[in-house]
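Annex B. Sample input.
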Amino acid sequence: MKKKIHPEYKQSTITCACGEVMSTNSTKQDIRVEICSSCHPFFTGKQKLLDTAGRVERFKKRYAK
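Annex B, continued. Sample output.
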Protein backbone atom coordinates (compact mmCIF):
# COMPACT_ATOMS: atom_id res chain seq x y z
CA MET A 1 0.00 0.00 0.00
CA LYS A 2 1.13 3.51 -0.70
CA LYS A 3 1.81 5.65 2.32
CA LYS A 4 -0.15 8.81 3.21
CA ILE A 5 -3.07 8.21 0.80
CA HIS A 6 -5.32 6.01 2.93
CA PRO A 7 -7.67 7.36 5.61
CA GLU A 8 -7.01 6.52 9.25
CA TYR A 9 -8.74 3.29 10.30
CA LYS A 10 -9.75 3.39 13.98
CA GLN A 11 -12.09 1.92 16.59
CA SER A 12 -15.64 3.19 16.03
CA THR A 13 -18.92 3.12 17.93
CA ILE A 14 -22.24 2.56 16.14
CA THR A 15 -25.31 3.81 18.02
CA CYS A 16 -28.84 2.92 16.94
CA ALA A 17 -31.98 4.94 17.67
CA CYS A 18 -33.28 1.98 19.74
CA GLY A 19 -30.30 2.29 22.11
CA GLU A 20 -28.18 -0.59 20.81
CA VAL A 21 -24.44 0.19 20.84
CA MET A 22 -21.92 -1.78 18.76
CA SER A 23 -18.17 -1.46 18.30
CA THR A 24 -16.34 -1.93 15.03
CA ASN A 25 -13.49 -0.45 13.00
CA SER A 26 -14.15 2.35 10.55
CA THR A 27 -12.79 5.56 9.12
CA LYS A 28 -15.46 7.49 11.05
CA GLN A 29 -15.28 7.79 14.85
CA ASP A 30 -18.99 7.71 15.77
CA ILE A 31 -21.81 6.46 13.54
CA ARG A 32 -25.52 6.92 14.30
CA VAL A 33 -28.12 4.78 12.54
CA GLU A 34 -31.92 4.74 12.66
CA ILE A 35 -32.38 0.97 12.54
CA CYS A 36 -30.17 -2.03 13.34
CA SER A 37 -30.41 -5.81 13.43
CA SER A 38 -31.81 -5.66 16.98
CA CYS A 39 -34.85 -3.58 16.06
CA HIS A 40 -35.37 -4.28 12.32
CA PRO A 41 -38.67 -6.14 11.72
CA PHE A 42 -37.05 -8.69 9.40
CA PHE A 43 -34.60 -9.84 12.08
CA THR A 44 -37.00 -9.62 15.03
CA GLY A 45 -39.75 -11.64 13.30
CA LYS A 46 -42.33 -8.88 13.72
CA GLN A 47 -42.55 -8.09 10.04
CA LYS A 48 -45.95 -6.87 8.87
CA LEU A 49 -47.34 -6.36 5.40
CA LEU A 50 -48.78 -2.91 4.94
CA ASP A 51 -51.92 -3.27 2.89
CA THR A 52 -52.69 -0.22 0.82
CA ALA A 53 -56.17 -0.34 -0.70
CA GLY A 54 -56.34 -4.15 -0.77
CA ARG A 55 -53.29 -4.62 -2.97
CA VAL A 56 -51.96 -7.60 -1.00
CA GLU A 57 -55.27 -9.44 -1.36
CA ARG A 58 -55.46 -8.64 -5.07
CA PHE A 59 -51.93 -9.94 -5.55
CA LYS A 60 -52.64 -13.16 -3.63
CA LYS A 61 -55.90 -13.69 -5.55
CA ARG A 62 -54.24 -13.10 -8.92
CA TYR A 63 -51.34 -15.50 -8.31
CA ALA A 64 -53.18 -18.12 -6.25
CA LYS A 65 -53.70 -20.30 -9.32
